[in-house]
Design goal:
- The structure holds two protein chains of two kinds.
- Chain A is mainly beta.
- Chain A contains no helices and eleven strands.
- In chain A, strands 2, 4, 5, 6, 9, 10 and 11 form a seven-stranded mixed beta sheet that branches.
- Chain A is globular, with a radius of gyration of 13 Å.
- Chain B has strands at about 5, 10-15, 20, 25, 35-40, 45-50, 60, 65-70, 75-80, 90-95, 105, 110-115.
- Chain B is globular, with a radius of gyration of 14 Å.
- The chains are: A mainly beta, B mainly beta.
Chain lengths: ~110, ~120
């Protein structure tokens, strides 16, 4: 199995609070991605990174920011959480764009 | 923009039988990759099989095979000799050459296997 760890696995928080999710990889892969999974939508890309300090937006990036200060860590931050951001969040990694993406186990985030 | 459509929200198969899950996509790219991922109740996303668009030969992984029709933009998954452990949500995904090779997912097909 690809070495990907997401933390926390579950989180419940209140509207308006900041939230940070962490993705840690031990594969030294260049690409890292954050997706969210909602019923009826499959997975949708939030942000991705193609190297240390190199990030770009995905299709549902509003309300989210990311940072990658080390190859192994990719952080997703909700500056002020809203109920619409209740979802399951997945991190994925890939060595190159032509290689498959491997996923972490997901984080279930509930915003009340 | 690329889109992926899975028109079967739910499918059912008898154990040991064969089932085919459908997927169509829309793209103007000529070079891309297609994948099937399995998501069991544990929530893990597990890669089942992949297909490179430039390859005419259909990919096969043990009991899993695809029928890739590039001109028709169709990418179906066939599961042979279905097992109880195959019960899961299956997602078809298209990997674009843009945006860091992001994956575009279909809505998923929930497969149940009857003993």
């Amino acid at each position: 199995d690809a070495g990907i760890t997401q933390s926390p696995r579950h989180k419940v928080t209140e509207t308006g609070t900041p939230v940070t999710l962490r993705c840690h990889q031990t594969e030294n892969h260049r690409y890292m991605y954050w997706y969210r999974q909602d019923p009826g939508h499959g997975l949708r890309l939030i942000h991705y990174s193609y190297g240390v300090k190199d990030t770009d937006k995905g299709e549902v990036s509003d309300g989210y920011s990311v940072s990658r200060s080390k190859t192994e860590d990719f952080l997703l931050t909700l500056e002020s959480a809203t109920s619409s951001q209740t979802s399951v969040y997945f991190c994925a990694i890939s060595g190159e764009t032509y290689q498959p993406q491997h996923f972490g186990d997901g984080t279930r985030l509930s915003i009340l | 923009a690329q889109t992926v459509t899975q028109s079967q929200p739910e499918m059912s198969v008898q154990e040991a039988e064969t089932v085919t899950l459908s997927c169509t996509y829309d793209t103007s790219e000529s070079d891309y990759y297609l994948f099937w991922y399995k998501q069991p109740p544990s929530r893990q996303m597990i890669l089942v099989i992949r297909q490179e668009a430039y390859k005419q030969q259909n990919a096969t992984e043990n009991r899993f095979s695809v029928n890739f029709q590039k001109a028709a933009k169709s990418f179906s998954l066939k599961i042979s000799d279905s097992q109880l452990g195959d019960a899961a949500m299956y997602f078809c995904a298209y990997r674009t050459s843009a945006q860091g090779g992001k994956l575009i997912f279909g809505q998923g097909t929930e497969l149940s296997v009857k003993p």
